[in-house]
Design brief:
Its main location: membrane. It is found in: Membrane. The protein is mainly α and about 575 residues long. The protein contains 24 helices and no strands.
Length: about 575
């Protein structure tokens, strides 16, 4: 039997929830390719001869695909997780690979509507990765969802900087090859871990919070490393071998959470073998165990899987709370809402307006970073630095909102909705800095906008899970971000793009030229984005005022113990798993 112990441990490790969490980190690190649009958008614009309004239309279609995840949410309600991840992989490769073929002239130049479809399909694939891995992790760690969401969305925020280092090491400074990289790498990651991501019925882990903070330290180290490398690459000349060395170091740090997963699974495996060799009786009415024994039993119970519910039981459960049942008879906040109960609630409407303003403005600013840098005279390499820094500060905003809001909520009962209001005020300052630039102002603006964008997105997902429950979370969190692409379309295409093109046409007229005389419509100077970003700042301020209404509506709810129901469920799982463990013996 001893000969088979390494095989047994390997099987448990690959099926355990700690390895699942590590695999989810990697999938999330590959699911943020949409944030690199500012790097390769200039290539699309120059290669295909687009003006700024057309390029912004592409950016809006990208945002539409990235944020309309209703399809992936509904698919997750009726299919297993592996199928959701598989569909996302196929969509990611198909969408971005077709864009790469277009910009490298390997196929006939597509029409604008075709390019819009390509980028929408590619960007929409990240919702399948989100739904497959992020939602599953939240359900497996319900009591630590703030920290889990902060870490998961943090790795998405770092993905732009990670991809930049990888493409510099693999392809060199070629933005066309970057499009190729983001077509195959995220798809490969999802396929590699397609059967490791699954929902489990687990008990509480005595070291759970410690493990989250260890992973937080690793992710912060990765973010600081990426920031240091990015700044060094701006100031110094790097050879290709230096780029390879940087990418190797980044990958080593990125994979280090696997060591934590191995340690935790090995502890569970060793304790299980020790206790099963000399088990004690497991009785529901038993007296309290000593602390060390209780922790051991919790570790053992975590690795025991219960039999799946029969399809009849699942159907019966669905009948009790259907997706569209009791639309106008809403439960209390925190309980499981049906899909229409949540979508038709006042709380969701307020979140929709706040998201329209906040995420819509932030996406507009991030998508236009390349053109902002170009209009102010920054070189292309520096523009890539802006995008990488936005990605890094985006990460800090995500982990900050996850861990700090969790601490504020548990210790002082500060509503997460209040932090959402704070996150809507920060980008207004960044917008004004872009509108009235000064030397190195784009660096400061990218810090504020990237940081606040990370806070807003993570808090949106956490607040939806806390107000409307986890039963239909895979659909509701995807519905909750629908306002983001709508805001991006209105603000990016109809306001920023139009005002930019108008200013560029004025410059052509002053030079005695017309639009037909130039292939690419370009604006230079501080005035190119001034009027549009003053408007964005005002929209952000309006969103902050709207979110204050949600703060007032939810302040009493956040004063309660919002996680008590999940603790009770996990305690019931512990008793049931102990009984199953004893029965196996």
């Amino acid at each position: 039997m001893a000969d088979f112990e390494p095989c047994n441990f390997t099987l448990q490790f690959l099926r355990g929830r700690w390895f699942m969490m590590f695999a989810s980190f990697l999938i999330m690190a590959g699911a943020g390719a949409t944030y690199l649009f500012g790097v390769y958008s200039k290539t699309i614009k120059s290669t295909l001869g687009y003006d700024q309004s057309t390029l912004n239309l592409l950016g809006t279609c990208k945002d539409l695909g990235a944020n309309v995840g209703v399809l992936s949410g509904l698919l997750a309600e009726v299919t297993p997780t592996w199928f959701v991840l598989l569909v996302g992989s196929v969509m990611n490769f198909a969408g971005y690979f077709l864009i790469w073929l277009a910009v490298t002239k390997k196929i006939a130049t597509p029409k604008v509507w075709q390019m819009c479809i390509y980028i929408c399909i590619g960007a929409n694939s990240q919702n399948f990765a989100n739904t497959g891995s992020l939602v599953t992790c939240v359900k497996n760690f319900p009591e630590s969802r703030g920290m889990m969401l902060g870490l998961m969305k943090g790795f998405v925020g770092l993905s732009g900087a990670i991809f930049t280092q990888l493409y510099l090491a693999i392809y060199g400074n070629d933005s066309k090859s970057l499009i190729l990289l983001i077509s195959w790498l995220p798809a490969l990651l999802s396929i590699l871990f397609i059967f490791n991501i699954r929902e489990m019925k687990c008990s509480r882990h005595p070291n759970e919070v410690k493990v989250f903070y260890e992973n937080l330290i690793i992710s912060i180290s990765l973010a600081l490393l990426l920031m240091g490398i990015t700044i060094a690459q701006k100031c110094l000349h790097f050879s290709h071998n230096a780029y390879v060395a940087c990418a190797t170091i980044v990958c080593v740090v990125l994979f280090s959470p696997c060591l934590i997963a191995i340690r935790e699974e090995y502890s569970c495996w060793k304790l299980k073998r020790e206790i099963l060799k000399s088990p004690c009786k497991v009785i529901v009415e038993e007296p309290p165990l000593p602390e060390s024994k209780s922790a051991a039993c919790q570790l053992v119970s975590e690795i025991v899987e219960l039999p799946e519910h029969s399809s009849m039981e699942k159907t019966q459960e669905k009948k009790e709370v259907g997706c569209f049942s009791d639309i106008f008879k809403k439960p209390k906040r925190g309980e499981d809402y049906s899909i229409l109960q949540a979508l038709l609630s006042v709380d969701m409407l307020i979140l929709f307006v706040a998201t329209f303003c906040g995420l819509g403005c932030s996406l507009t600013a991030i998508d236009n970073l390349g053109q902002i840098g170009e209009s102010l005279g920054y070189p292309q390499h520096t523009i890539s630095t802006f995008v990488s820094l936005v990605s890094i500060w985006n990460y800090f905003g995500r982990v900050f909102s996850g861990f700090v809001s969790e601490k504020l909520l548990l210790k002082w009962k500060v509503p997460r909705t209040l932090m959402m209001t704070f996150a809507l005020l920060l980008p207004a300052i960044g917008d004004l800095i872009i509108a009235f630039p000064f030397p190195c102002s784009v660096y400061v603006a990218s810090l504020l906008i990237g940081f606040s964008f990370g806070i807003q997105l993570t808090l949106l997902f956490i607040i939806i899970s806390e107000l409307f429950g986890l039963k239909y979370y895979s659909t509701l969190f995807n519905c909750g971000q629908l306002a983001s692409p709508i805001g991006s379309y209105v603000l990016n295409v109809k306001i920023v793009g139009k005002l930019y093109d108008n200013e560029a046409l004025k410059q052509l007229a002053r030079n005695g030229m017309t639009r037909s005389m130039v292939k690419e419509l370009t604006c230079n100077g501080k005035q190119c984005f001034r009027s549009s970003f003053i408007i964005l700042a005002c929209v952000n301020l309006f969103g902050a005022l709207v979110s204050l209404i949600l703060v007032m509506r939810t302040k009493d709810y956040y004063k309660c113990d919002i996680y008590k129901r999940f603790r009770d469920e996990m305690e019931a799982n512990e008793k049931e798993m102990k009984m199953v463990s004893a029965a196996e013996k």
